[in-house]
Amino acid sequence: MKIALTYFSATGNTGKMADVINESLLALGAQVDIYDITSYADRQKPIDLASYDAVVFGSPIHSWRAPRVVRKWMRTLDGQGKKCSMFFTYGGFGVHPTHYSTRQILTEQNFAVVSSAEFPGAHTFNLGGWKALENRPDKSDFAVAKEYAAKTYKRFIGEDSSILGELEKTKYREEELDQIETFRFRILTQLPTRNGQGCGMCMICEESCPTGAISAETGEVNKDKCIACLRCVDTCPEDALKINDMSETYAFKLEMEKATNEDLEKKQSKIYL
Ligand SMILES: Cc1cc2nc3c(=O)[nH]c(=O)nc-3n(C[C@H](O)[C@H](O)[C@H](O)COP(=O)(O)O)c2cc1C
Question: How far is ligand 1, taken at its centre, from the CA of residue 52, in Å?
Fold first, then answer.
């Protein structure tokens, strides 16, 4: 069984889960090739799906769905009727339309989705002062990831012939979810800025940006292209990129979601079969 494991991970949570899932699949006897599709350049490289028996798609949740660049990339694939599975990491807030809407895309691209999973992870905006799930994913999440890999593998090899069952539907149409994404982006996010000091012109921010939004030369961020994934802030070796303090929006976010920090801490990884 040859599996392509693809993932997008701006700040490392999804990458950590991909590592655990990869190790588990290898231990079960699968042959796995990993495709990190986070950077713009990596998403331009074609994957020869014909040479794989099954595909695993890993992604963070950005405003209730897979990030728009991931959705766009998925829409370029031809699933050729192959089995696939999805997994997501999220910062402890809203998840549900993500499984549903991503399955819809993958089904339209001619994949048969057999399973899905969600894993809580430190919220990206902790880089700006939020305090959501600071120590996740942890070993409890890794244990669920192993179980997810084992159950998914059984479905891939046909030992379990079921496919992914009913998922919670969303009442929103794609266009409405686009509007929600734009609105949340406007009120909650901060664009990265360079403080002008310490930048060694290593170019990592520009090379690793998922959307080609940042210029290393000028330090400017194109606000129409930036998806606020904060990969540039996370990967800058000189700590020269920052976002403004977002602590106040965290209190606002908790209020908006009618949640407390303790509620978030209770979030558990979950497998969908
Ligand atoms: C623009 C943006 C939107 C996000 N939206 C959500 C969300 O709707 N619900 C949630 O729980 N977490 C949300 N998060 C948090 C990420 O899903 C979470 O931190 C994820 O694990 C990051 O994965 P990565 O480290 O692999 O990039 C969002 C993060 C960003 C940057």
Answer: 29
62 CB under 6 A from ligand 1? yes
What are 30-80's pLDDT values in tens digits? 999 999 999 999 999 999 999 999 999 999 999 889 999 999 999 999 999
CATH number at residue 203: 3.30.70.20
Same domain, 119 and 195: no
Both tokens assigned to 70: 């991931």
Residue from 164, 202, 162, 184 nearest 249 by CA? 184
Domain count across the chain: 2
Q: What is the C-alpha R_g of the chain?
A: 18
62 Cα to the center of ligand 1, angstroms = 5
Identify the domain containing residue 84 by its residue range.
Answer: 2-171+266-272
Are 124 and 207 part of one and the same domain?
A: no
23: phi then psi, degrees, rounded to nearest 5: -60, -40
What's the whole-model pTM score?
0.96
Classify residue 7 by burial, with Cβ atoms within 10 Å: 0-12, 13-18, 19+. buried
Residues 111, 84 contacting (CB under 8 angstroms): yes
